[in-house]
Amino acid sequence: MDEKGVNERLALLYEAELRRCIDTLDHVPDSAHGGPAHPMLIHVPEGYVESKMRVMVFGQETNGWEETLSGKKDVTFLQAIYHGFLEKGLRHRGPYLNAVKSFQRLLCELEPSCQIVLNNVIKIGKAWNKGRPPDSVIEWQSRWFTHVIKEELELLKPHLVIFLCGPNYDPFIRRVFPQEVTFQPLNTREVRQLARVVAPGHLPLNSFRTYHPNYGYRHGFTKIQAEIVSEVCGSPA
């Protein structure tokens, strides 16, 4: 399947789930505060399918992505926004995007065809502020954990998955893989700092969770990043 086919399959997945969200939006108690934002819908770039190092990086959640979910912005529009952000957004600064760009540089040194796509553990954030959405929004979007993220992984088939969300988001990773996920220590580090995320049949061997860069850059993130790249290339950091 080429990029066009992958993006079409993603669109079909998103259309059904986005419609379900819009149809149940009045069930979200916190919508009075501004409501959930739109989900960040992946659109894979040219060269992704043939890449020898496909990478998916998970952040925590979006902060007001495309404003309040309303039904006025369809999947085609939202995938186009993502496509533009992936092309231009990495020019922006900030701890998270700086970390992604640093990974991209290091991994491209290992494999020039490396391609990175961005995702979030919590697919739908809140429109009115930054940070984790309330429990009502989490429960309302439960299928985005149990169904959508698994389907994204199945369609995109990454060779490397990096969760830059920190250990406090492990419960949300467990929502995606409730029966099978484990967080295993790596090197001599505490699991809170750096863990291999194991979910057989869903995640590649090279799947890691570490701090969100907002916190990580104040707590040895550069060294942790080197250790992750070292695990990928199979040589000591």
Count of β-strands: 6
Strand order of the largest sheet: 2-1-3-6-5-4
- Which regions contain 5 or more consecutive residues with pLDDT less than 50? none
Indicate the mean pLDDT. 92
Helix proportion of residues, in percent? 40-55%
What oligomeric state best describes the polypeptide chains here?
single chain
Question: In whole angstroms, how far apart are the ends?
Answer: 36 Å
Give the class-level CATH name: Alpha Beta
The CATH topology label is Uracil-DNA Glycosylase, subunit E
Q: Treating each run of at least 4 consecutive H or I residues as one helix, how many helices?
A: 8
Write the layout of secondary structure elements.
Layout: H1 3-23, E1 54-61, H2 75-88, H3 95-110, E2 115-122, H4 135-140, H5 142-156, E3 160-164, H6 170-176, E4 182-185, E5 194-198, E6 206-210, H7 213-216, H8 221-233
Parallel strand pairs: 1-2, 1-3, 3-6
Antiparallel strand pairs: 4-5, 5-6
Question: Could you walk me through the main structural features you see in this protein, from its secondary elements to its overall organization?
Answer:
The chain has 237 residues and is α/β, with parallel strands linked by helices. The chain has one domain: Uracil-DNA Glycosylase, subunit E, CATH 3.40.470. 41% of the residues lie in helices and 15% in strands. The protein is built from 8 helices and 6 strands. It has a 6-stranded mixed β-sheet with strand order 2-1-3-6-5-4, sandwiched between helices. Strand 5 (194-198) and strand 6 form a beta hairpin. The longest helix has 21 residues, at 3-23.
